[in-house]
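Field reference: sequence -> structure
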Amino acid sequence: MSGLESLYQELILDHSKRPKGKGLADEEGRSATSHQRNPICGDEITLRVRVGDDGAVRDVTWEGAGCSISQASASMLAALVAEEDGMPGAEASALIDGFREALRSRGEIPLDEEVFGDAAALSGVSKFTARVKCAMLAWVAFEDALARA
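Structure field:
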């Protein structure tokens, strides 16, 4: 295993053990919740997004159970949104689309660390089609919640 792969594996384990954004925030203002389940492995997530009057995503919180990849992915997504001082809706949609494209690329398109932060560590998951749905679960919930907000 290369040094980079080892670092990425440690990041995934760290996020799954010490998740960011875990615990659903109260519904207030413009908020929406999405519950998603991966029927193949049983991973589940309930994700809540809060949106400001300007349409920018203010925060993402979640509750879930599943493998370390699904839990780390939700944590990484919440941390990425928290880094922004309000993520414009168009930016959030582009982020989701880019993440989906990279994970469906079977390793051909790596996630850019400048754009995806710690979530770039999930690039290697794209080589394992059975695990792509695990990594995508929170992002699908995010997309659904944004559409509802």
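Note: The mean pLDDT is 92.
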